[in-house]
Write a structure and sequence with these properties.
alpha/beta, 7-stranded mixed sheet, 3-stranded mixed sheet, about 20% strand
Length: about 300
Protein backbone atom coordinates (compact mmCIF):
# COMPACT_ATOMS: atom_id res chain seq x y z
CA UNK A 1 0.00 0.00 0.00
CA UNK A 2 1.39 3.35 -1.06
CA UNK A 3 1.77 6.09 1.53
CA UNK A 4 -0.54 9.08 1.30
CA UNK A 5 1.43 12.18 0.32
CA UNK A 6 0.02 15.48 1.60
CA UNK A 7 0.28 18.41 -0.82
CA UNK A 8 2.73 21.13 0.00
CA UNK A 9 1.28 24.03 1.89
CA UNK A 10 0.97 27.27 -0.08
CA UNK A 11 -0.23 30.74 0.53
CA UNK A 12 -3.66 29.90 -0.94
CA UNK A 13 -3.67 32.99 -3.18
CA UNK A 14 -4.37 30.99 -6.31
CA UNK A 15 -7.26 29.18 -4.64
CA UNK A 16 -8.69 32.43 -3.32
CA UNK A 17 -8.48 34.06 -6.73
CA UNK A 18 -10.13 31.08 -8.38
CA UNK A 19 -12.88 31.06 -5.76
CA UNK A 20 -13.42 34.81 -6.15
CA UNK A 21 -13.66 34.47 -9.92
CA UNK A 22 -16.11 31.58 -9.56
CA UNK A 23 -18.31 33.49 -7.11
CA UNK A 24 -18.14 36.61 -9.29
CA UNK A 25 -19.14 34.66 -12.38
CA UNK A 26 -21.98 33.03 -10.49
CA UNK A 27 -23.28 36.36 -9.23
CA UNK A 28 -23.03 37.83 -12.74
CA UNK A 29 -24.88 34.86 -14.21
CA UNK A 30 -27.66 35.20 -11.66
CA UNK A 31 -27.88 38.94 -12.33
CA UNK A 32 -28.10 38.37 -16.09
CA UNK A 33 -30.84 35.76 -15.62
CA UNK A 34 -32.78 38.05 -13.28
CA UNK A 35 -32.49 41.02 -15.66
CA UNK A 36 -33.49 38.87 -18.61
CA UNK A 37 -36.50 37.60 -16.66
CA UNK A 38 -37.54 41.17 -15.83
CA UNK A 39 -37.06 42.26 -19.43
CA UNK A 40 -39.01 39.33 -20.87
CA UNK A 41 -41.72 39.68 -18.23
CA UNK A 42 -42.28 43.34 -19.07
CA UNK A 43 -42.29 42.67 -22.80
CA UNK A 44 -44.78 39.83 -22.25
CA UNK A 45 -47.03 42.08 -20.19
CA UNK A 46 -46.97 44.68 -22.96
CA UNK A 47 -47.63 42.05 -25.64
CA UNK A 48 -50.62 40.71 -23.73
CA UNK A 49 -52.32 44.09 -23.97
CA UNK A 50 -51.54 44.74 -27.64
CA UNK A 51 -54.19 44.82 -30.33
CA UNK A 52 -54.02 41.71 -32.48
CA UNK A 53 -55.11 40.77 -35.98
CA UNK A 54 -55.38 37.39 -37.65
CA UNK A 55 -52.14 35.80 -38.80
CA UNK A 56 -51.66 35.26 -42.53
CA UNK A 57 -53.12 31.87 -43.42
CA UNK A 58 -51.31 29.51 -45.76
CA UNK A 59 -52.23 29.67 -49.41
CA UNK A 60 -51.16 27.88 -52.56
CA UNK A 61 -47.67 28.98 -53.56
CA UNK A 62 -46.82 30.67 -50.28
CA UNK A 63 -43.02 30.80 -49.75
CA UNK A 64 -41.60 28.22 -47.37
CA UNK A 65 -39.45 29.12 -44.35
CA UNK A 66 -35.71 29.41 -45.02
CA UNK A 67 -33.46 27.33 -42.78
CA UNK A 68 -29.75 27.03 -43.43
CA UNK A 69 -28.65 27.53 -39.80
CA UNK A 70 -29.82 26.02 -36.53
CA UNK A 71 -32.99 28.10 -36.63
CA UNK A 72 -35.08 29.24 -39.57
CA UNK A 73 -34.64 32.84 -40.65
CA UNK A 74 -37.55 35.04 -39.63
CA UNK A 75 -39.17 37.97 -41.40
CA UNK A 76 -41.32 40.52 -39.59
CA UNK A 77 -43.33 42.81 -41.86
CA UNK A 78 -43.80 46.23 -40.25
CA UNK A 79 -46.56 48.24 -41.91
CA UNK A 80 -46.00 51.89 -41.03
CA UNK A 81 -49.21 53.89 -41.30
CA UNK A 82 -50.79 57.20 -40.42
CA UNK A 83 -54.43 56.47 -39.77
CA UNK A 84 -55.74 54.41 -42.70
CA UNK A 85 -52.92 55.50 -45.02
CA UNK A 86 -49.88 53.27 -45.52
CA UNK A 87 -46.68 55.34 -45.37
CA UNK A 88 -44.04 52.64 -45.80
CA UNK A 89 -43.31 48.97 -45.25
CA UNK A 90 -40.21 47.61 -43.53
CA UNK A 91 -39.20 43.94 -43.48
CA UNK A 92 -37.11 43.11 -40.40
CA UNK A 93 -35.06 40.07 -41.44
CA UNK A 94 -33.59 38.10 -38.50
CA UNK A 95 -31.00 35.57 -39.62
CA UNK A 96 -31.11 31.93 -38.64
CA UNK A 97 -27.97 32.46 -36.58
CA UNK A 98 -29.91 35.16 -34.68
CA UNK A 99 -26.84 37.41 -35.04
CA UNK A 100 -27.95 39.63 -37.94
CA UNK A 101 -30.95 41.92 -38.19
CA UNK A 102 -31.52 43.80 -41.44
CA UNK A 103 -34.30 46.31 -42.09
CA UNK A 104 -35.52 46.25 -45.70
CA UNK A 105 -37.19 49.52 -46.73
CA UNK A 106 -40.10 49.14 -49.17
CA UNK A 107 -41.92 52.21 -50.53
CA UNK A 108 -45.67 52.26 -50.01
CA UNK A 109 -46.35 52.47 -53.76
CA UNK A 110 -43.89 49.70 -54.68
CA UNK A 111 -44.72 47.57 -57.70
CA UNK A 112 -42.79 44.64 -59.13
CA UNK A 113 -44.10 45.19 -62.67
CA UNK A 114 -46.38 47.55 -64.53
CA UNK A 115 -49.53 45.51 -63.94
CA UNK A 116 -49.26 44.63 -60.23
CA UNK A 117 -51.09 46.57 -57.50
CA UNK A 118 -49.11 48.80 -55.18
CA UNK A 119 -48.64 48.04 -51.50
CA UNK A 120 -50.91 51.01 -50.76
CA UNK A 121 -53.69 49.48 -52.87
CA UNK A 122 -53.27 46.10 -51.19
CA UNK A 123 -53.21 47.70 -47.73
CA UNK A 124 -56.48 49.50 -48.48
CA UNK A 125 -58.05 46.06 -48.98
CA UNK A 126 -56.55 44.83 -45.71
CA UNK A 127 -53.18 44.35 -44.00
CA UNK A 128 -53.19 40.65 -44.82
CA UNK A 129 -53.51 41.46 -48.52
CA UNK A 130 -50.49 43.76 -48.20
CA UNK A 131 -48.55 41.00 -46.44
CA UNK A 132 -49.35 38.51 -49.19
CA UNK A 133 -48.23 41.02 -51.83
CA UNK A 134 -44.90 41.55 -50.01
CA UNK A 135 -44.42 37.77 -50.03
CA UNK A 136 -44.99 37.73 -53.78
CA UNK A 137 -42.62 40.65 -54.41
CA UNK A 138 -39.79 39.41 -52.17
CA UNK A 139 -40.29 35.68 -52.66
CA UNK A 140 -39.92 35.32 -48.89
CA UNK A 141 -42.33 34.18 -46.20
CA UNK A 142 -43.46 36.89 -43.80
CA UNK A 143 -43.59 35.05 -40.49
CA UNK A 144 -45.25 37.88 -38.58
CA UNK A 145 -46.96 41.16 -39.26
CA UNK A 146 -46.80 44.32 -37.15
CA UNK A 147 -48.72 47.53 -37.75
CA UNK A 148 -47.06 50.69 -36.46
CA UNK A 149 -49.20 53.82 -36.18
CA UNK A 150 -47.07 56.95 -36.56
CA UNK A 151 -49.29 59.17 -34.43
CA UNK A 152 -48.80 56.86 -31.45
CA UNK A 153 -45.14 56.32 -32.30
CA UNK A 154 -44.48 59.97 -31.48
CA UNK A 155 -45.07 59.08 -27.81
CA UNK A 156 -42.48 56.28 -28.09
CA UNK A 157 -39.94 58.77 -29.46
CA UNK A 158 -40.67 61.15 -26.58
CA UNK A 159 -40.27 58.26 -24.14
CA UNK A 160 -36.83 57.68 -25.65
CA UNK A 161 -36.02 61.38 -25.09
CA UNK A 162 -35.94 61.90 -28.85
CA UNK A 163 -34.15 60.30 -31.79
CA UNK A 164 -30.88 61.33 -33.42
CA UNK A 165 -31.84 61.31 -37.10
CA UNK A 166 -30.36 62.86 -40.23
CA UNK A 167 -31.74 66.28 -39.34
CA UNK A 168 -30.52 66.20 -35.74
CA UNK A 169 -32.09 65.36 -32.39
CA UNK A 170 -35.87 65.26 -32.91
CA UNK A 171 -38.78 64.84 -30.51
CA UNK A 172 -41.79 62.71 -31.38
CA UNK A 173 -43.73 65.33 -33.33
CA UNK A 174 -40.64 66.43 -35.27
CA UNK A 175 -39.64 62.81 -36.03
CA UNK A 176 -43.06 62.04 -37.51
CA UNK A 177 -42.89 65.28 -39.54
CA UNK A 178 -39.41 64.26 -40.73
CA UNK A 179 -40.85 61.07 -42.18
CA UNK A 180 -43.91 62.80 -43.66
CA UNK A 181 -41.70 65.46 -45.27
CA UNK A 182 -39.78 62.99 -47.44
CA UNK A 183 -39.43 63.98 -51.10
CA UNK A 184 -40.60 60.59 -52.37
CA UNK A 185 -42.14 57.33 -51.22
CA UNK A 186 -38.72 55.74 -51.70
CA UNK A 187 -37.10 58.23 -49.34
CA UNK A 188 -40.01 57.93 -46.92
CA UNK A 189 -39.48 54.17 -46.65
CA UNK A 190 -35.78 54.71 -45.96
CA UNK A 191 -36.59 57.24 -43.26
CA UNK A 192 -39.09 54.83 -41.70
CA UNK A 193 -36.41 52.12 -41.49
CA UNK A 194 -33.94 54.69 -40.14
CA UNK A 195 -36.40 55.71 -37.41
CA UNK A 196 -37.05 52.10 -36.38
CA UNK A 197 -33.34 51.36 -36.25
CA UNK A 198 -32.53 54.47 -34.25
CA UNK A 199 -35.38 53.74 -31.84
CA UNK A 200 -33.75 50.34 -31.14
CA UNK A 201 -30.42 52.04 -30.46
CA UNK A 202 -31.95 54.64 -28.16
CA UNK A 203 -33.95 51.98 -26.28
CA UNK A 204 -30.68 50.21 -25.45
CA UNK A 205 -28.97 53.47 -24.40
CA UNK A 206 -29.07 55.16 -20.98
CA UNK A 207 -29.19 51.92 -19.06
CA UNK A 208 -31.59 50.06 -21.34
CA UNK A 209 -33.60 47.55 -19.34
CA UNK A 210 -31.69 48.51 -16.19
CA UNK A 211 -33.45 51.88 -16.31
CA UNK A 212 -36.80 50.39 -15.39
CA UNK A 213 -38.90 53.60 -15.19
CA UNK A 214 -37.73 54.64 -18.66
CA UNK A 215 -38.12 51.13 -20.02
CA UNK A 216 -41.67 50.87 -18.68
CA UNK A 217 -42.51 54.27 -20.19
CA UNK A 218 -41.31 53.11 -23.61
CA UNK A 219 -43.10 49.77 -23.39
CA UNK A 220 -46.30 51.51 -22.34
CA UNK A 221 -46.09 53.89 -25.30
CA UNK A 222 -45.56 50.99 -27.69
CA UNK A 223 -48.81 49.50 -26.50
CA UNK A 224 -50.60 52.54 -27.88
CA UNK A 225 -49.26 52.35 -31.43
CA UNK A 226 -48.52 48.70 -32.19
CA UNK A 227 -50.78 45.96 -33.55
CA UNK A 228 -49.41 42.44 -34.00
CA UNK A 229 -50.69 39.21 -35.51
CA UNK A 230 -52.18 36.50 -33.34
CA UNK A 231 -49.36 34.11 -34.21
CA UNK A 232 -46.84 36.29 -32.39
CA UNK A 233 -47.66 34.85 -28.99
CA UNK A 234 -45.95 35.73 -25.71
CA UNK A 235 -44.05 32.42 -25.88
CA UNK A 236 -42.87 33.22 -29.41
CA UNK A 237 -41.73 36.70 -28.33
CA UNK A 238 -39.84 35.28 -25.34
CA UNK A 239 -38.12 32.67 -27.51
CA UNK A 240 -36.96 35.32 -29.99
CA UNK A 241 -35.63 37.55 -27.19
CA UNK A 242 -33.74 34.69 -25.54
CA UNK A 243 -32.25 33.44 -28.84
CA UNK A 244 -31.24 36.86 -30.17
CA UNK A 245 -27.51 37.61 -30.45
CA UNK A 246 -27.97 40.84 -32.41
CA UNK A 247 -25.77 43.84 -31.63
CA UNK A 248 -28.17 46.74 -32.07
CA UNK A 249 -25.46 49.08 -33.39
CA UNK A 250 -24.90 46.63 -36.27
CA UNK A 251 -28.51 46.49 -37.46
CA UNK A 252 -28.42 47.10 -41.21
CA UNK A 253 -30.62 49.12 -43.54
CA UNK A 254 -31.33 47.67 -46.97
CA UNK A 255 -33.35 50.11 -49.13
CA UNK A 256 -34.89 48.69 -52.29
CA UNK A 257 -34.04 50.77 -55.35
CA UNK A 258 -36.73 51.86 -57.77
CA UNK A 259 -37.94 54.49 -60.21
CA UNK A 260 -41.10 56.55 -60.03
CA UNK A 261 -43.62 55.69 -62.75
CA UNK A 262 -47.18 56.73 -63.48
CA UNK A 263 -48.58 53.81 -61.49
CA UNK A 264 -46.04 53.59 -58.66
CA UNK A 265 -42.40 53.05 -57.74
CA UNK A 266 -41.15 50.28 -60.02
CA UNK A 267 -38.57 48.16 -58.21
CA UNK A 268 -35.18 47.99 -59.90
CA UNK A 269 -34.88 44.42 -61.18
CA UNK A 270 -31.25 44.03 -60.08
CA UNK A 271 -31.98 45.34 -56.59
CA UNK A 272 -35.06 43.16 -56.28
CA UNK A 273 -33.22 40.03 -57.46
CA UNK A 274 -30.41 40.70 -54.97
CA UNK A 275 -32.98 41.07 -52.19
CA UNK A 276 -34.71 37.83 -53.15
CA UNK A 277 -31.40 35.96 -53.30
CA UNK A 278 -30.27 37.33 -49.94
CA UNK A 279 -33.54 36.34 -48.27
CA UNK A 280 -33.62 32.90 -49.91
CA UNK A 281 -30.10 32.02 -48.77
CA UNK A 282 -30.30 33.61 -45.31
CA UNK A 283 -27.43 35.89 -46.32
CA UNK A 284 -29.13 39.27 -46.61
CA UNK A 285 -26.78 40.85 -44.05
CA UNK A 286 -23.87 40.24 -46.45
CA UNK A 287 -25.74 40.97 -49.69
CA UNK A 288 -24.67 44.25 -51.36
CA UNK A 289 -27.41 46.76 -52.10
CA UNK A 290 -26.71 47.51 -55.74
CA UNK A 291 -27.41 51.23 -55.54
CA UNK A 292 -24.95 51.64 -52.68
CA UNK A 293 -21.24 51.04 -52.19
CA UNK A 294 -21.80 47.88 -50.17
CA UNK A 295 -24.17 46.08 -47.83
CA UNK A 296 -26.61 48.42 -46.13
CA UNK A 297 -24.87 48.35 -42.77
CA UNK A 298 -22.97 50.77 -40.57
CA UNK A 299 -20.41 52.57 -42.74
CA UNK A 300 -22.43 52.36 -45.95
CA UNK A 301 -26.21 52.78 -46.08
CA UNK A 302 -26.19 53.68 -42.39
CA UNK A 303 -23.05 55.58 -41.51
CA UNK A 304 -21.52 56.33 -38.18
CA UNK A 305 -23.17 58.88 -35.92
CA UNK A 306 -20.68 61.53 -37.08
CA UNK A 307 -21.73 61.09 -40.71
CA UNK A 308 -25.45 60.73 -40.06
CA UNK A 309 -26.29 64.17 -41.46
CA UNK A 310 -25.46 62.92 -44.95
CA UNK A 311 -27.89 60.00 -44.78
CA UNK A 312 -31.32 60.31 -46.36
Amino acid sequence: MQPIVEPKAGNGLGHRLALTALVGASVLSVAVVVLLAIYVDRISDMATGLRRVDALADYAGRPAPVQVAENPAMNFLILVSSGPQLQAAVVANLSGSRRDLTLVALPADLIADGSSPTLTDAYASGPLDATQLVERITGARMDHQLQLDLDGFAAVVDGLDGLQLSEGQLDGTAAVAYLAGADSTLQRSQRAAEMIRQAMIEAEANGGVLNLPRFDRIVGALGGCLTIDSGLSNDAIEAILVESRVHIADVGLWPVSGAKTRVGTLADSGSLNALREGLATDALAETPQLSLSGPGRVGTAVRSQADRKSVV
